[in-house]
Amino acid sequence: MKTEQPQLSEQDIDRIIEMAWEDRTPFDAITAQFELKEQEVIELMRKEMKPSSFRMWRARVQGRATKHRAKSEVDDARFKCTLQKKISLNKISKRK
Predict the structure, then answer these.
(1) Which of 15, 21, 28, 47 gives the lowest tally of CB atoms within 10 Å of its CB?
(2) Rounded distance between C-alpha atoms, residue 10 and residue 4, angstroms
(3) 3-state DSSP assignment of residue 32
(4) CA Rg, the chain, in Å?
């Protein structure tokens, strides 16, 4: 029996796909934000993507430790470029 998925807007679907493609965004983050389990994300990706793109994504994600928080050796580590601009109060600070 399938679980009932929450109603998702086009923007939500785009964001879920983007998060699913990101290497360091675990499925737990998608679940927390959109209440979709890993299997539901897989079903959404299968429905929304071309078959070849879905196969490429599945091959990339399957077994990837960073997509599964329980398997990940790194917890909350994020890459941050030294040139990344800081944003505060909707104003982008300039490098000096």
Answers:
(1) 47
(2) 18
(3) helix
(4) 16
Considering the entire predicted model, what is its pTM? 0.64
Long-range contacts, stretch 78-86, CB < 8 angstroms, 24+ apart: 78/24, 79/24
Q: Which two tokens stand for residue 64?
A: 């990837």
Write the pLDDT tens digit of every residue in 25-64: 888 889 999 999 999 999 999 999 999 999 999 998 887 7
Chain centroid, CA 66 distance in Å: 11
- In one-letter notation, the amino acid at residue 51 is P
Beta bridge mates, 91: 88
Structure tokens at 35: 């209440």
